[in-house]
Design brief:
Length: 501
């Protein structure tokens, strides 16, 4: 029996039983004869699809009643409802006068605010649902566009923001006065007023930070899931480049905030590219989870016929084999090959062990300028000796945990590992990575201050071994804002540590 998403069982669940719910076919089947291709947005085919996309968005916004599952508002709210209004108020507004068992009302109750894992209950297994939930969401949205256009050949293009020359938002999204493309424009994208950030609607590349550019490091991950403190592919993509693009494109009432993100038409091209990364990772030979609990997980969505469907993960792990509408991509993202004996391949076999942690416990407040966090060893022996005791197969990770904020800062933060006194500097002085607070702010039903249980980890083995280890004392962690955070954000990192695994 498929596992139910938390929205599938709601207060009016009894009413749900009064209407038939279409079953999602999930059985072994041959690859469909027709496989549609999704194209890069600036390619000739991608440009053709963007023209179709604009026409469909205009129809969804202006000609389709908001209460319809085919409307722009309904699709936005599937991800997360406008937090200034709330779900209960919006259901009451849109379905005022409708009977309790109105099909569209029931669909809203079942599908709104179900984004995974941002609207989840904090359970560890929900992290694994980020990629399949969004694949289903984008796929069914694509089918709704096809329905609106009466064009079964339409496919969503993707925004290839990690490729030089394509890092600016496509020009069709920057034309507020164009009769066709004005529906793709949003005024509240980042305007470049914060130093280090882009004027998105001005056509600047969103990748303005030379110290920590957007990267595809997540595709080098061997595992789908988190192993100890080593991020797997799913978590690395979600917390890294996915969140980075969100906060680099939009402010706190746009792409940079979970409740508002799907309101911006660029959201769908962004997540199309995230889906392409997963597709490419699998094409390169990396494996998805095989547990029944993951494969049988289902989620509730509205389809192009305004009916409820409950797709199951196992039917979406191979896009070319989706029975009702298979698709592929015009080209994969480059994925590093797996080496026979990759560094850290054995990390999953070792229990994490903290070898150094912040000297002053408590949250590290990031309001203002760069903050230095001195580390102290957790044993009466030099840190270098603790690292050596782990053997050559173990790695050392810098772990930042329990990110929290009162409001979205709107920027990324670069993380540095400054060498201890007496150790050489040079190239190692660059950042080990970057963090963002896209999912560390209360939203929807979880509004207000929250403490995320998510963490970032960076493999810093080469920074803390050999000559870089200096006299064996711990380094200092420095967290620097890549711009000026929103005044009311008050971002903080709950804990900082070096972990051997």
């Amino acid at each position: 029996m498929p596992v139910l998403s938390r929205r599938n069982f709601i207060a009016s669940g009894a009413a749900l039983a009064t209407i038939p719910l279409p079953a999602w076919v999930h059985q072994a089947h041959a690859q469909p004869a027709t496989v549609l291709t999704r194209y890069e947005a600036t390619s000739p085919q991608g440009q053709e699809m963007l023209e179709k996309y604009a026409r469909a968005v205009a129809k969804m916004m202006a000609q389709t009643p908001e209460a319809s599952p085919l409307s722009w508002l309904f699709q936005w709210y599937t991800h997360s409802v406008d937090p200034t209004k709330g779900m209960a108020a919006e259901v009451a507004r849109l379905y005022s006068g409708a009977p309790p068992n109105d099909p569209s009302r029931l669909l809203a109750l079942a599908t709104w605010n179900t984004c995974q894992p941002h609207q989840a209950n904090g359970l560890p297994q929900q992290q694994r649902m980020f990629l399949p939930w969004h694949r289903m969401y984008v796929y069914l949205f694509e089918r709704i566009i096809q329905k609106q256009l009466n064009d079964a050949t339409f496919t969503l293009p993707y925004w290839d923001y990690t490729t030089d020359g394509k890092k600016a938002i496509p020009e069709q999204f920057r034309r507020p006065n164009d009769p066709l493309y004005k529906v793709l424009f949003r005024a509240n994208r980042n305007d470049g007023s914060i130093p280090g950030t882009a004027n998105v609607n001005g056509g600047q590349p969103i990748d303005q930070d030379a110290d920590a550019p957007l990267n595809l490091d997540a595709l080098a991950r061997r595992d789908f899931d988190i192993k100890g403190v080593a991020l797997g592919f799913s978590a690395d993509v979600e917390r890294g480049i996915h969140g980075d693009v969100h906060v680099l494109v939009g402010n706190t009432s746009n792409m940079g905030s979970v409740p508002w993100a799907a309101r911006d038409p660029i959201f769908w091209l962004h997540h199309c590219n995230i889906d392409r990364m997963w597709w490419s990772w699998n094409k390169a030979g990396r494996k998805n989870p095989t547990s029944t609990s993951w494969l049988d997980q289902s989620f509730a969505f509205a389809n192009e016929n305004s009916s409820r469907v409950d797709p199951v993960n196992r039917d979406f792990v191979e896009p070319e084999a989706i029975e009702d509408g298979a698709y592929t991509y015009d080209q994969p993202v480059p994925v590093p090959p797996l080496s026979p004996t990759p560094a850290g391949a054995m990390v999953a076999a070792f229990a994490p062990s903290i070898i150094a942690q912040q000297a002053q416990p408590g949250p590290v407040n990031l309001s203002g300028a760069a903050v230095s966090v001195p580390l102290t060893t957790t044993a009466a022996v030099p840190m270098s000796a603790q690292i050596a005791a782990g053997g050559q197969n173990q790695r050392v990770f810098l772990v930042l945990q329990n990110l929290q904020a009162h409001a979205q800062p709107g920027i990324r933060y670069n993380v540095y590992l400054d060498p201890p006194s007496g150790a050489p500097s040079g190239p190692a002085s660059g950042p080990v990575g970057a963090i963002n607070f896209f999912d560390a702010v209360g939203h929807g039903e979880h509004g207000g201050m929250v403490q995320s249980d998510k963490f970032y980890s960076f493999d810093v083995t080469d920074r803390v071994t050999g000559a870089a280890a200096g006299n064996g004392t711990p380094p200092t962690v420095r967290i620097a804002p890549a711009g000026a955070a929103a005044a009311d954000a008050r971002p903080a990192v709950g804990s900082v540590a070096l972990v051997r695994q």
